[in-house]
Design brief:
This protein has a single domain, classed as Up-down Bundle (Na+/H+ antiporter like fold). It starts with a helix and ends in a 7-residue tail after the last helix. By secondary structure, the chain is mainly alpha-helical. Helix 2 packs across helix 9 and helix 3 crosses helix 7.
Length: 309
């Protein structure tokens, strides 16, 4: 046991190694975005957005208005640590997370709908994020600010660029795309497993030591409300679309969270402790989402149905 603790301490205290691990981590989700979107063409994605424009409008209204207000209310009511409150507030306005594609696949949602949602929300993010950062900075003891163009550029690097690359490769180089899809899919799976092994202990430690019982309760309520709001906002749609929308409403874009936090507090960029704290938030949110997934699976099974088509 002591040797394991020593090994982790050695990794966490090696700043050069951590720097390269963070660089490596930054490649994982863009790669997965490419893998998912390379299954579609521009015509298919465009048709999905056009056919479900009113549903996507409801998603935008929920994520742009309702969820930031819910987050602000929960952070006001619960005495959560300032760092967790800040992460929750930023995540509530930084939508369009590539992780939604991973969760949509794992939770039997629609990858096509998840891709369409991510495109729409990221493109509209520069219109909503600056406003909410201004509001939150007046409501809470936070210093948040960032220009619309900087937000779009930062988030596009991890979402829109690999998404466009996937669509272009599928459109013009379908045979090469099939090969790359297999290679990148394995790269994602192996990287995800290794990163979990490296960061999970530290992340769980932050959940226990920093978030505490109050933070865990606040996060559970916040994530649960946003999942339910997204799911019922899509009433009338197919179940797989509703699952994708529920996930989109419950997830914040980690790249945008880091960017906004670093912009307001530049010293955090070299603060490994903050990185682990954000990853603790990711792990806790993931556990809550899985809890809801199993509840839904149980309820569907009781009706004699299945989450799969």
């Amino acid at each position: 046991m002591e040797s394991i603790v020593t090994w982790y301490n050695g990794i966490y205290n090696n700043k050069e190694l951590i720097h390269w691990i963070v660089v490596w981590m930054g490649t994982v989700f863009p790669i997965y975005v490419f893998v998912v979107t390379s299954k579609f063409t521009f015509k298919i994605i465009g048709q999905e957005i056009l056919d479900k424009k009113w549903l996507l409008l409801k998603v935008f209204l929920v994520t742009a208005i309702l969820i930031p207000l819910i987050a602000a209310g929960i952070v006001k009511i619960f005495p959560v640590p300032l760092v967790l409150g800040g992460i929750m507030l930023i995540a509530s306005i930084a939508v369009g997370d590539p992780f939604d594609l991973v969760d949509a696949h794992g939770k039997k949602g629609s990858l096509l709908m998840a891709s369409a949602i991510m495109i729409v929300l990221i493109l509209l993010m520069p219109l909503t994020v600056p406003f909410w950062m201004w509001v939150f900075s007046h409501w809470f003891p936070l210093n948040l600010s960032a220009s619309p163009e900087n937000i779009l550029m930062k988030v596009s690097a991890v979402a829109i660029v690999p998404m466009l690359a996937g669509l272009l490769f599928r459109q013009f180089l379908p045979k090469l795309t099939n090969i790359l899809e297999v290679i990148f899919d394995w790269y994602f799976k192996v990287s995800a497993i290794l990163l979990v092994i490296i960061f999970l202990p530290g992340s769980v430690g932050k959940i226990i030591s920093v978030f505490g019982i109050t933070g865990i309760i606040a996060m559970t309520i916040m994530t649960s409300i946003t999942i339910i709001a997204g799911y019922y906002a899509a009433t009338g749609a197919e179940r797989k679309d509703r699952i994708s929308i529920a996930l989109a409403c419950s997830l914040g874009n980690m790249a945008a969270v880091f960017f906004i936090a670093y912009h307001g507090y530049p010293s955090l960029e070299k603060n490994f402790d903050f990185l682990i704290t954000v990853l603790g938030w990711v792990v806790l949110r993931w556990l809550i989402i899985w809890g809801w997934y199993f509840i839904m699976k149980y309820r569907v099974k009781k009706k004699g149905e299945s989450l799969t088509p």
